[in-house]
């Protein structure tokens, strides 16, 4: 379960943390934290089967890691809802 309006609050308090990113961007960070509910939801839209969803999810994570290049940690948060 997410925290309602947390991103909006965080963006208002720390606007310097938000950077537009494209596939052509390269951003080096120490840690990348992913909310896997958002990742799976994004990938589910184009998937017609469970297998396609799994492949699309891994491809999406790989693309994010290629763009962001975390130096220390990739943290993937998954909940059971």
From TrEMBL:
A Pfam family matched in the record: XRN_N
InterPro entries named in the record: 5_3_exoribonuclease, Xrn1_N
Gene3D superfamilies: 3.40.50.12390
Assigned GO CC terms: nucleus
GO biological process: nuclear-transcribed mRNA catabolic process
Gene Ontology MF terms: 5'-3' RNA exonuclease activity; RNA binding
Domain Xrn1 N-terminal: 1-79
Protein name: 5'3' exoribonuclease 2, putative
Source species: Acanthamoeba castellanii (strain ATCC 30010 / Neff)
């Amino acid at each position: 379960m997410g925290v309602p309006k947390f991103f909006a609050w965080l963006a208002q308090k720390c606007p310097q943390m938000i950077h537009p990113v494209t596939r052509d961007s390269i951003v080096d960070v120490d840690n990348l934290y992913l909310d896997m509910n958002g990742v799976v939801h994004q990938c589910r839209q184009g998937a017609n089967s469970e297998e396609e969803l799994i492949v699309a999810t891994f491809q999406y994570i790989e693309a994010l890691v290629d763009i962001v290049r975390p130096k220390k940690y990739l943290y993937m948060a998954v909940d059971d809802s």
